[in-house]
Write a structure and sequence with these properties.
Elements lengths: L15 H6 L11 E5 L5 H9 L4 E6 L2 H5 L13 E5 L2 H8 L7 E6 L2 E2 L2 E2 L6 H10 E12 L5 H11 L4 E5 L5 E7 L6 H6 L8 H17 L2
Parallel strand pairs: 1-2, 1-4, 2-3, 4-7
Antiparallel strand pairs: 5-6, 7-9, 8-9
Helix pairs in contact: 4-5, 5-6
Length: about 220
């Protein structure tokens, strides 16, 4: 589990790859509903809860011991906005595809087990289910290990599921590879570079994300 928290600022994104994953705000600044596959220390959940006050947050974590550490990591308990499910992420997403609602605007895939990347979260079926579970202009963001021997295979599976509409950004630590896969219109690199995705956020958010968003925009192909 890659997680780190400063007790004086529990909502701060201290691990570089989490700031890269927040790049979905470059595509959708106000998502109505975010699904997070993998809770870990709750860094992404806490950040989104604080800075996206209108967003519903659904979290799926397979390990009950991780969920039990919520209080220790200062993960908020707000049943009106946050729902936490102890389940396999692949099974959960598959079940969602059979429902009319909810459809997620963003799916963040950051699920690992004691062996590393969870196999069920790297399958062709899982990525295709994510595509179906997204809203018409939704985006999936997947955290992969760049040096995994099947990294190219996993990337190809995402590409196939999303009809080639994806981009890959290496995190600053280099060991993490963040893939942004869009269900909606083709990714327009020029459009993403030209707009200020953080314009309506406060200085706290801009201080954490502005440099990373600038880095992402110039790494886009």
């Amino acid at each position: 589990m890659q997680s780190r928290m400063c007790s004086q600022r529990p909502t701060h994104l201290d691990v570089d790859y989490t700031r890269t994953m927040m790049g979905f705000l470059m595509f959708n600044r106000e998502p109505a509903h975010i699904a997070m596959i993998g809770l870990g220390g709750g860094s992404l959940l806490k950040f989104c809860y604080r800075h996206l006050p209108a967003t519903q947050l659904t979290v799926v974590e397979i390990n009950p011991h991780v969920i039990a550490l919520r209080a220790e990591f200062q993960v908020p308990d707000d049943p009106d906005r946050i729902s936490v499910h102890c389940a396999d992420g692949a099974d959960f997403v598959r079940q969602i595809t059979s429902q009319i609602q909810p459809r997620f605007d963003v799916i963040l895939v950051d699920g690992f087990d004691c062996q590393g990347q969870a196999a069920s979260l790297c399958s062709q079926d899982f990525y295709e289910d994510c595509y179906l579970a997204l809203s018409p202009r939704g985006i999936m963001v997947a955290n992969l290990h760049h040096d995994h021997p099947e990294h190219a295979t996993f990337t190809d599976r995402i590409r196939n599921a999303f009809e080639g509409n994806l981009m890959e950004i290496a995190s600053k630590e280099k060991s993490n590879s963040i893939l942004f896969a869009c269900k909606g219109p083709r990714i327009s690199v020029n459009e993403l570079r030209d707009k200020d995705s953080l314009a309506h956020f406060d200085q706290e958010v801009r201080d954490q994300l502005q440099k990373e968003f600038s880095r992402i925009s110039w790494l886009m192909n």
